[in-house]
Design a protein that fits this description.
The chain has about 500 residues and is mainly β. Helix content is about 0%, strand content about 50%. The chain contains one helix and 38 strands. The strands form eleven sheets. Strands 3, 4, 5, 7 and 8 form a five-stranded antiparallel β-sheet that branches. The protein has a four-stranded antiparallel β-sheet with strand order 13-12-15-16, with no helix packed on it. Strands 20-19-22-23 form a four-stranded antiparallel β-sheet, with no helix packed on it. A hairpin with a 5-residue loop joins strand 19 and strand 20. The chain is globular, with a radius of gyration of 27 Å. It starts with about 30 loop residues before the first strand and ends with a strand.
């Protein structure tokens, strides 16, 4: 057990049937590592994640962290003065990583600790560029206690920043790409502490540098509105202690809360805008559209009793054009919920997939499987209690693509590759994670990939999620004869 400065330990024992053993356990004093993290100018750096990953010891051998971080690793974060402490560390070798926003790797060090040793390590970081912001209201007054998330080069998604704006409304995000362009979502403080789960404002086109960006928030963006109501089931009975979600139009963030004993709910501290109320738990699938509401600054909207009708169970039987079918991914999206996916299920071909209960409306079923062309169909859910769809997967052809990535100091990226057919129906979406060595040429990495499609006419988009750059798209049309000699489609994301 790891507590205070006590180390933890483990040992493998072989027990023969019928044998009795006596074990002596000695708790040794754990090692300790202290220090202060600074940049090259000598200033302390706060909010740096320090992760010490245990790699094994001379006694136990090389472990490669197979025992997991819960029992062997040590993790902490540098404070406002840059100071940090790791205590209770096991004897052995540790790989220590320093990471900034978005878990960006800043520095790596390997150290060996003995039981009870106390060491000091004061890392000096190349902080890169910092994005300095100052949040002000429409009259120029500072907005203190606000939080933000940031998206752009080096981030897979929009990443929350632990810091909050100070009394002058100031906040800085370090370790950013010198030539990067970023966008930030701004979250208002809550009276009970913390910040709102839904952003109040969004700002794009922000470049790091020595000068602070002054972000003036209008009265419409300040948190002064609310949406309330009572959540009922199809029989009109209040749904107590049930999760509901609120989503703002144009944002992916969800605010989840639980109804009270009478089914009542209230989302307060909202900025003016358009919102969607969605189910967060049974008896309806997560994300099911319930109602829409628009609020102005200072407005309190009461939706009154909100209920949904009866549900239908969708069943999908998969088959393929070959005897041995692959594992397939089934995606079911609802048109009422802005195409939010309501369910994702991986199943073997030939298996019968059963959805969670669906409310009446228009849905799209999409099936993707390695080596097969995407399968899509529109599904109309009405008053029936059950609906069966037979989905047969057809073998497709590999369409090669070549992606030229922007110049970055990062050693990983995530690409989103989307495909639409001639009817402009989304038939395929794939997240491609790539890891590579550092770019020493300064020209950007080039990735080779392929997607499987049936002969036809398609539009393909490639983008880096979380970045402000628009997706790069290309079109392709081919028949079965041409499918055997397709040339790579080039996507240049450096522009």
């Amino acid at each position: 057990q790891k507590e205070d400065a006590n180390a933890i330990g483990m040992e493998s024992l072989w027990i023969d049937p019928g044998e009795q053993q006596e074990i002596s356990i000695v708790i040794r004093k754990g090692a300790r590592l202290d220090g202060v993290i600074r940049n090259k100018n000598g200033s302390p750096v706060a909010d740096v994640l320090i992760h010490a990953e245990w790699e094994g010891s001379q006694t136990l051998g090389k472990m490669e962290d197979n025992l997991g971080p819960l029992i062997s690793d040590s993790v902490t974060t540098s404070g406002p003065d840059g100071a940090y402490s790791l205590v209770g560390m096991m004897e052995g070798e540790f790989e220590i990583e320093l990471r900034g926003p978005g878990h960006k790797e800043l520095l790596e060090e390997t150290r060996f600790f003995t039981s009870g040793s106390e060491e000091t390590w004061n890392p000096v970081l190349d902080a890169g560029e910092s994005l300095h912001l100052r949040l002000l209201d429409s009259l120029g007054g500072p907005l203190a206690g606000w939080g933000l998330s940031i998206a752009g080069p080096g981030f897979f998604y929009s990443e929350r920043i632990p810091a909050r704006t100070n009394s002058r409304g100031e906040i800085s995000v370090p370790f950013l790409e010198p030539n990067g362009i970023y966008e930030v979502s701004l979250y208002a403080p809550r009276e009970k502490g913390g910040v709102q789960q839904i952003p109040s404002a969004l700002r794009t086109g922000l470049a790091p540098g020595a000068t602070a960006h002054l972000l003036h928030l209008s009265a419409q963006e300040l948190p002064s509105a609310a949406i309330a109501g009572t959540w009922l089931n199809a029989a009109g009975i209040p749904l107590a202690r049930t999760n509901l979600l609120l989503v703002r139009a144009g944002h992916v963030n969800e605010w989840s809360l639980t109804t009270d004993a009478a089914g009542h709910f209230e989302f307060d501290g909202l900025s003016a805008g358009d919102y969607q109320l969605r189910a967060g738990a049974s008896p309806y699938p997560r994300g099911t559209f319930i109602a829409a509401a628009s609020v102005a600054a200072g407005e309190h909207v009461n939706l009154g009793p909100v209920a949904l009708r009866g549900t239908t169970v969708l069943k999908v039987r998969l088959s393929s054009s070959t005897e041995a079918g692959p594992s397939a991914g089934l995606f079911l999206a609802s048109a009422q919920a802005s195409s939010q996916e309501l369910g994702v299920q991986w199943d073997q071909a030939g298996a019968l997939w059963t959805s969670t209960p669906l409310v009446p409306g228009q849905y799209q079923l999409r099936v993707q499987a390695r080596g097969y062309a995407p399968y899509t169909c529109e599904v109309q859910i009405g008053s029936q209690s059950e609906l069966l769809i037979e989905a047969e997967l057809q073998a497709g052809f590999e369409v090669p693509i070549s992606v030229h990535l922007p110049v970055t100091s990062s050693t990983s990226c995530m690409l989103l590759i989307s495909v639409w057919d001639a009817q402009q129906t989304l038939i395929s979406e794939n997240n491609l994670f790539s890891f590579f060595s550092k770019d020493e040429t300064g020209t950007g990495h080039q990735l080779e990939h392929s997607i499987v499609l049936a002969p036809g006419n398609y539009r393909i988009e490639v983008e880096l999620p979380g970045e402000s750059k628009a997706p790069v798209e290309a079109s392709i049309e081919f028949n079965q004869a041409e499918a055997m000699d397709l040339q790579p489609i080039a996507f240049d994301l450096r522009q």
